[in-house]
Amino acid sequence: MLKQEEQTSPKTSLGKILIIEDNPDYQTLIKKSLLNEFDIIFESNAQVGLEITKNIIPSLLIFNVQALKVDADIFLKLLRNHTCSAANIILILLTDTANEECYMLAREYGVYIFTLEWLLADKLSRLVKGLLDLKSFVNNQS
């Protein structure tokens, strides 16, 4: 688990990013990719992550389906039910393999799906920046 002082870095005005990940190696990769550019919060427990979304309403939520310890469909339903503005949260699901269940989640909940190889290829920062810029653009058009 990352230390509290390593968890956040006020680098962007695009909002906070919540990352639900219980694997310390993946946390380190995500931290390396995002911490210098984004204000991020790490959580390893899905239930605590849901509570955080109610309190801070992140702009983007990245979660590893294996880290949830609950069915991803149940987690996403709870997220939608507990956070009234959850529809405005960009959701990125990281997975070892994108299977049919992942694609069903993408269709039903508007989740972006990326394999963990994205972390290894150091593409996550560009992806997150692009999605947050798009969200900001859409919000400014409203």
Account of the protein in words:
- There is one protein chain.
- The chain has seven helices and five strands.
- It has helices at residues 4-7, 24-34, 46-56, 72-82, 100-109, 117-120, 124-141, and strands spanning 16-20, 39-43, 60-64, 90-95, 112-115.
- By secondary structure, it is α/β, with parallel strands linked by helices.
- Helix 3 packs parallel to helix 4 (72-82).
- It has a five-stranded parallel sheet, sandwiched between helices.
- The model is unreliable at 1-10 (pLDDT under 50).
- The protein has one domain (4-141): Rossmann fold.
Concise structural overview:
The protein has 142 residues and is α/β, with parallel strands linked by helices.
For this entry, give a set of tags.
142 residues; alpha/beta; Rossmann fold; 5-stranded parallel sheet
H/E element order? HEHEHEHEHEHH
Tell the overall outline: globular
Distance between the termini: 39 Å
Number of domains: 1
Classified in CATH, the superfamily is: Response regulator
Side-by-side strand order of the widest sheet = 2-1-3-4-5
Number of helical regions: 7
